[in-house]
Structure formats: C-alpha cells, structure tokens
Design brief:
1 helix; mainly beta; Immunoglobulin-like; four-stranded mixed sheet; four-stranded antiparallel sheet; about 5% helix; 2 domains; single chain
Length: about 190
C-alpha cells in the first residue's frame, strides 16, 4: 500500500509539475523582467563576483543569502499572482528586476469572483463585469511591473457591472487585483 501511494505521489507530481525558468545573475542583470505562471520556479545562476538576491516588494518574499560565483544557484517557486521586485544589495543600480506571476485557470481561488474585464488593451476606461450576482464592497488594486501599487479604490457594488477610469496610468502592463471578503480575482491588463 505504501509503495502504491509513493508511486501515485511521484506520478502526480510529474504530471502536474510547473516550469522552471533560468536567468543569469551578474553585473549585466539590469532590469530583468520575466512573466511566469503560478507554481513556476525561477533559478538564477551566478556569474563572477559575490552577490545576493533579495525581494524588495510585491507579493513574495525571499533572500538567497550571499554566494560567490560562478555557478552558484538560487531557486524560488512563486505561488501568488502579482509582481515581486528584487535586487542585489551590493549592486542595486545594476542588478535588479521583477517577476510577474499570472494566475492560471486551474487555480480556482484566483478567479472566484468570476470577473471579466474589457476592453484589454485599455485606453481610459476598463469595464469590470461579475458573472455571478455580486453585491458588496470590493477593493481594487493595480500594480505596475515593478510591484508598485499604482491605483487603489474601494467601491460598493449593487450591480454586476462597473467602469473604472485608468486614464492617469502610464502606458504599460499592469496586474489588476479585485478583492471582496474571502474572494478575489487577478487579471493582467495593458494600458495603451
């Protein structure tokens, strides 16, 4: 019985394993940007020199500690949708970046508000449409690719539709998060 459980666990892990993304980490790692899915891992491989890799903001927290390269590696698995920024403490002006983690359809708690947005790309207004009969207070947050909060608003909804003015946002890619009680939705939006 224990052997059957072990085989099942190994096969399940293999069948549902996520992607590992590899990045170099050295003096030429200026403004690294990567977009991945929930459950994916990133492995950074050190070049020459002594460096660390530490999160500075966003939804995940990690710290590699210091390694002296070349060849040292640090891996982290991202489990929360959103943007996490990171730096090398001794070289913050030349070694930094951001990981944008997108929710996947297989993770039901990420879209349990059943939210649709349109149009996307957005010019000035984005329409939020809740598929279920929703009434209550929502919190809307929009983060830029560096994990900085660019917009926040509380809103009471008595209807399934709502338009949000985002004309003050700069052009770029953002993560839109909508929360209500224990429900949430995370969407990637593009501002033209």
């Amino acid at each position: 019985m224990k052997l059957k459980l072990l085989v099942f666990a190994l096969l399940s892990n293999f069948a549902f394993s996520q992607t590992n993304h590899e990045l170099n980490w050295g003096m030429s790692s200026t403004n690294q940007q990567i977009t991945i899915d929930v459950g994916d891992s990133v492995t950074w491989t050190w070049g020459s020199g002594s460096h660390n890799l530490r999160s500075t903001g966003g939804v995940e927290t990690f710290d590699s500690g210091y390694f002296t390269g070349p060849g040292a590696q640090f891996s982290y698995t991202f489990t929360n949708p959103g943007v996490t920024t990171y730096i090398c403490d001794p070289h913050p002006n030349s070694m930094y970046g951001a990981v944008t983690v997108l929710g996947t359809a297989s993770v039901s708690e990420i879209n349990n508000l059943e939210l649709n947005i349109y149009p996307n790309p957005i010019v000035d207004l984005v329409n939020l449409n809740f598929n279920n009969n929703f009434e209550g207070i929502i919190l809307i947050e929009i983060y830029d690719t560096l994990g900085r909060l660019s917009f926040t608003q509380n809103k009471f909804l008595s209807d399934n539709n709502f338009s949000l003015n985002v004309s003050d946002l700069e052009r770029g890619i953002y993560i839109l998060k909508v929360y209500s009680d224990d429900k949430s939705s995370v969407k990637r939006i593009i501002k033209k």
